[in-house]
Amino acid sequence: MKRQELAPAKVNLTLDVGARRPDGYHEVVSVMQSVALYDTVTMESGTGEGISLTCDDAAIPADGSNLAWRAAEVFFRTTGVACDGLHITLEKSIPSQAGLGGGSSDAAAVLRGLRKLYAPELPVEALERMGMELGSDVPYCVRGGTALVQDGTVYDLALCVPAPPDTEMAQTLQTLKELDLGGKDVETQLAAFCSAVSAGELPLAENLTQAQCQSLLAAGLPQSGAVRLTARGTRTAVDGTLAPQLLGGVGAMSAEQWAQKKAQGLAMDESIGQWGLEAAWEDALRGRAGSLKVTVDRSSGGRTETIQSTPQAGDTLHLYLDADLQRTLRSALQQQIETLQATKPEGKGKEACAGAAVVVDVQTGGVLAAVSLPDYDLASWRQNYAALATAQGAPLVNRVLNGQYAPGSAFKPAVAASALAAGIITPQSTVNCGGRYTYYAGYQPRCLQLGHRGAVSMVTALRHSCNIYFYDVGRRLGVDTFSATAQQLGLGVPCGTELPETTGRLTWSTDENYQAGIALMAAIGQGNTSVSPLQLAAYAGALARDGQRPALHFAQSTTDAAGNITWQAQPDVLAQAPGGAAVFAPIREGMAQMAQTLRTLRESPIPLACKTGSPQLAGTLADGTHYTNSVLIGYGPVQQPRFAVAVVIEYGGGGSNAAPVLRAAADWFAAAGMA
Are 675 and 643 a contacting pair, CB within 8 Å? Predict the structure, then answer.
């Protein structure tokens, strides 16, 4: 028999972070929506050959690692239905790794199809429980449509000691073993527990599913008082890798922190926001605890409860961060790193290992996406902390805010803006490029680009990233002058966000190591210059706005329990570089022309402008050339900029290697109809 199912793509329309719960987590709510883009999944039963799979996309695995294959395995194992041979055919239309849930939807389609083939009486809820074993999006994809996805509930299991009357501890332990709960050494745990205390609750297991709880209830253990189930909220709808370094986490207070917080009425054992947005918005998110006075009459056993103060919920924090764009950007950056590793030679991107990407709203300054790789899963960071702290690539570091990188040639628009405003050059002024800068007899750096020799104008110099042009202009202008303009545009200065960030530095004539060579290098974004990816995004936004640098915000607003706005981010201009449109129009033209030299950007559905950078690193290859980072800034659409992007890939081998990440952002905006 054959069964065909459509597997629609999904998008996340919203992501709201709500008030903090008693367990230290926040209510998180996302609206998911199925869209009219779908894969076709065909299942043929009775093939007599176990499970097999074919796919028309050669890049997608056709083995047991495929989520659709795994879904079939989970179905047969959970239902007990014997597999008489199943062949799955995937016809892909949903792009892989695009944040559209293609794999999850394929898996859900397999579950639906197998239910119709083998167990039509099976409730849909059973398929959703199966989907939980496969991924957080699969249960939603089983039903599809429009859905509000929010926090789930898990249960913790404890053994009551001593055993209640009319129960036997030995029988309780035997039942727990039969249900595979409590572990094989529960007797050892019990003996150790009883040697320490005479009565209490022995923790046995955490994060029990609804199915496990139902098994316990069927056995009658919670009803008898032999065990205790404690409900606990947990986030099941949101990917823990969404933005872990940015969102941050909560943890127990240190002695120093409690000394500061006890005046606010916090108990010593309470958790507080320790980093990221959790820490930045701690006071607003927390709310206020209530108090209850309990009076017990020893003689009668009577109990009186009096509410002394009513608890007050904390505010809800709304972010500019778009969950779907965040996933899209993360996927694009991760995929590009892996592509460089697999396809590029040594020194040209093969060593790519980490990076960051940022998207900001040019008009509001809202940070729409902020990716730092490698990252980690907020759901498991505590148990994995030791490994994370020593892991290669430093996943705990937020490269968006604290990574420091030379911008390389991405710095050149700042030099051009400074020179135009100072009257050192005009858009029509030219510098002769002969391949070397010969002004200094003892130091003659090269121009590494081809195709532009001879008299080079500013637009041509930006289009082809001519070093000679900017060596000469930067020398004439002076390092202090163009560094000051770079600050006005957002480099080497705070971005205005609510989170702590590393400011970085620019190159100045007062630097201890300053000399002519350093000044020349500074004019092409090297020297002593180091900035963060967030600053590069602010800088790209300022270039798109004719020199107006917007303040950046992760948080958009807060609302109280009644839905009233208690705080609202306001668009703000932190600085204005001189010259306005007269200065920045030709710079923007040069950046637009550069984007046209890169095929992946030339074919974008949204007209883009960009500037790449390939700053040299300390390590050298056998031929004496240097390893380089891949740096790119850009914005779009060209005529009416809506978004600005910054990308850094460590050891990425050249600025153009970051272009696919900018393209992924442009594709997302085009698909969303937002640009």
Answer: yes
